[in-house]
Design a protein that fits this description.
single chain; alpha+beta; 6-stranded antiparallel β-sheet
Length: about 160
């Protein structure tokens, strides 16, 4: 996997009436982790300013696998499943303190030229980092949550 990791604990305000982390808060945690990943590949505040470039999220799919409770530690890892000149297909896994996968998020990210307000190729240094991340895991089997669709299976 990637050497990227985002760590946090579940704050009390993320816990709902069911006594565990609310579904919206899983997505908040994944959003924070995505922001940290974007910083990590070279588009932190300084990089965004230098390149006049940012990243938007186009689509997400979340799978909730284990309950997370108040104060529970978790870490989020990221895996680049695919990429092209201006998009990243990213897969995030949230692991609980026991190392179990508590939730996953699959997402499509798009690079944006801030001056034009339009999609544009990644800056060279960012593209090289994304490619290196992809190559770390490109030969591995994709996680079973990748590419899922929502629907009721009829027999």
């Amino acid at each position: 996997m990637s050497s990227f990791s985002y760590k946090q604990t579940v704050p009390s305000e993320w816990v709902d009436y069911n006594g565990h982390m609310n579904d919206a808060e899983y997505n908040r945690a994944f959003s924070l982790a995505t922001d940290a990943f974007i910083d990590w590949i070279g588009l932190d505040e300084k990089g965004r300013e230098q390149y006049q470039y940012t990243i938007f999220t186009l689509e997400t799919h979340t799978c909730y696998l284990k309950e997370m409770h108040e104060g529970a530690a978790f870490d989020v890892s990221a895996r680049v499943l695919d990429f092209d000149a201006k998009r990243i297909h990213l897969f995030l896994e949230m692991h609980n303190a026991d190392g179990e996968v508590a939730a996953t998020l699959e997402e499509m990210l798009m690079g944006i030229d801030q001056n034009e307000g339009r999609p544009a190729p990644f800056p060279e240094e960012v593209a090289a980092t994304v490619k290196a991340e992809y190559e770390k895991t490109s030969d591995q089997e994709q996680p079973k949550q990748v590419g899922r669709t929502i629907g009721i299976r009829r027999k």
